[in-house]
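Thread: Newbie trying to understand structure tokens

Hi all, I'm a second-year student working on a class project, and my supervisor (Dr. K.) asked me to get a predicted structure for one chain before our next meeting. I've only ever worked with sequences, so writing a 3D structure as a token string is new to me. If someone could post the tokens and maybe explain what I'm looking at, I'd be very grateful. Here's the chain:
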Amino acid sequence: MTSAQAFSLGLRSVAPILVGVTPFGVIYGVVALQSGIPPLAAMAMSSIVFAGSAQFLLAQLVGVGAPFLLTAGAVGLVNLRHALYSASVAPILARLPRRWKILLAYLLTDEAYAAAIPHLLASETESSKSAQAHWILFGSGLGLWASWQFATLAGVLIGTQLPPNLGLDFALPLTFIAIVVPMINSPAMLLAALSAGAVAVALAVLPYKVGLFVGAIAGLVVGAFLSETMRSRQK
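---
Reply by user tm_fold:
Sure, no problem. This is what the structure looks like when written as tokens:
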């Protein structure tokens, strides 16, 4: 397999996902403007942060005037899952030079990982793919990146024509639900999600959406505790 074929494989693998990602990018652009974020800053967030769920959360926190440290902490916590993706692909991409690792780390998102990981795992046993594994991830990541930038631009352009009180911030919880529900595949994850949701609802009266932040921490603690408990019982 050549590098061009591997890149094309990654691009084709992520293409079906873009059908669902593009509308979220458009809605993000609209929500960002309605939260008071300037158009250029909204576009810059898609280029720099490049993480849809974190961008929705950031836009909403900016809209309610949350303090900087709380905003940065909440966004960082939401993006912690990317460390798990990095740990998963690290052994496969360990031989790459630093410039490639930096580029792929930037492009590594939920959708790019989901599209590329089956082929990356197959590359460990298929010599034809092994040397080109990074091109597969690059293809899926770049395809998603380009789609997200165009979708954000469309949302920003549309958002300038919409009334500011339209209230599209409902897309934030819908986005998180769409991300979280398919990932719940074990009792530990289910209880972690329920715990996070219960704490967030109980603390909904707190200012600056602090309840969401505390709920996320509660979910992480419960999930880690249950996972370790179940692992100990299996030994």
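A couple of things are worth pointing out once you decode it. The chain has two domains: 3-168, 184-235. The radius of gyration is 19 Å. Feel free to ask follow-ups in this thread.
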